[in-house]
Amino acid sequence: MFYKLNDNIIFRKYNKFGLITDNSEYGYRLLNDQQNIIGEKYLSESGAVMLNTIRRIPRNIDDIVKELLNIFEGISFKDLKVDVMEFFDLLVDYGYLSKGSSVEECNSIKLVNFEHLNCENNFEDFSIDEIDKKYLLKSIHIDVATVCNEKCIHCYIPHNCKTKTIDTNLFLKILKEARDMNVIHVSLSGGEPLLYKDINYVLEKCKELDFSVNVLSNLTLLTDETIAIMKDNKLLSVQTSIYSMNNKVHDWITKKEGSLEKTITGLLKLHKEGIPVQISCPIMHQNKDCFIDIIRWARSYNISVAVEPLIFASYDNLRENIKNRLTEEELDLVLDQYLSEGYAEMMYEKAQDQMKLTPESPICSVGQDSLCISVDGEIFPCAGWQSNILGNIKSNSLKDIWEHSEKLNALRSIKRSQFLQCVSCKDREYCTVCMMRNYNEDINKNIFKINRLQCKMTKMMHNKVETILKGIPAIKS
Ligand SMILES: C[S@@+](CC[C@H](N)C(=O)[O-])C[C@H]1O[C@@H](n2cnc3c(N)ncnc32)[C@H](O)[C@@H]1O
Ligand code: SF4
Ligand code: SF4
Description:
Layout lengths: L1 E4 L3 E5 L4 E5 L17 E4 L1 H7 L7 E2 H9 L7 H18 L2 E4 L2 H6 L21 H4 L5 E7 L22 H13 L4 E6 L8 H10 L3 E5 L7 H8 L4 E6 L5 H8 L4 H14 L4 E6 L8 H9 L4 E5 L19 H27 L15 E4 L4 E3 L10 E2 L5 H7 L1 H7 L7 H4 L11 H7 L10 H19 L7
Parallel strand pairs: 7-8, 7-13, 8-9, 9-10, 10-11, 11-12
Antiparallel strand pairs: 1-5, 1-6, 2-3, 3-4, 13-14, 14-15
One iron/sulfur cluster binds next to loops.
């Protein structure tokens, strides 16, 4: 019998446990993605040792057991083989592994729909000490370029900071340290990452080191060579930005004539090659009347659109870019349009998840499982918070900063209960309180100072979703 790790699955072995996950936890998905969302599972120490023998190409079970006999003592080949196969078969049932009586059969098994899988809750999370699971660095975002060939009016990166690309040796150092820490996912962003001369080389390196990868790009400079490299990594997906299907509006926002045409061409090329893509669409005065066309157009290609109705201030605290932000009246109309496209249910489900949070829950994901790194090696907490530097990977290791940065430890220990006005807010499950937004926008960089529009928008969203889904009359905001 042969076993292999499925193409969309990532496994990491830690000292005392293992973690197996499908890439949908990290990558972008098409609207009609039929692939099974399996989620992540923690594995016991012995399970992790067994799984560590599995590769992306089929391996014979006898070879695997022979290797494991060097680690597990006092057990016969026959008994160990029974144990290992029982464990692997569970993972096959769940969709993490494939098996076959020959290499060809093992390779030919395609992932099937969830209902065909024999996985009736017969797989339990192994009991791992919560302390071990806490603060695992799973995802890093690297700005490989601050330079950009567009000059978007809303961009959170101040235009005068858009001058650099990353040194490739520094990138490789980051990647190595991240892999040593068992990081699962890398986002390559900027600025415009396709302006980085070694982008193809580093994409190949990411694949070699078995990282899940997201590339955030305006795609105007996409080449066939980059597409081929992207296609070669089954764990890679791409986000691009479209602000309007009308080139006058889009190009006015990006300040680059011809940019919409190039972005759409790039996007459709990636889509044709089967590379998962997503569109990001911040909404502003300029595109409030036409953003809905993007959602409708994208739906015809099964591409999802992440809209952002409230753009945030640039990290230089000057707030110049947010003069393009929607007013309260515009927000009201925009939310109506957005929710009428079938998003009310999604917002409701998200709110149900948020209801599980307690006053003791962390305020957001800052310091929980992700970090960002600038072109100069500076570490900062999240995209948009480049001005809050926690350390530099040139002088300290990623591990050291992740575990010992006083600033990061302070941020990760902030609880929801510390946002006093939020504790008893009846709209809180519809809200994403964001310390970066508060910091960038407040003149005193106060992370607790919530913008008034944030609360207004949340209240509107809550009322509108309830009205649509439950027939509950909306309360006038
Ligand atoms: C900073 S860009 C980097 C990648 C690439 N240059 C692009 O535009 O897609 C990443 C995303 O952030 C969005 N973005 C930029 N400034 C923003 C802001 N102030 N508020 C919300 N999203 C913003 C962009 O529209 C884009 O979708
Ligand atoms: S949003 Fe992206 S493309 Fe636009 S200026 Fe910012 S980094 Fe450049
Ligand atoms: S709506 Fe305002 S008060 Fe309510 S949770 Fe959000 S930020 Fe806090």
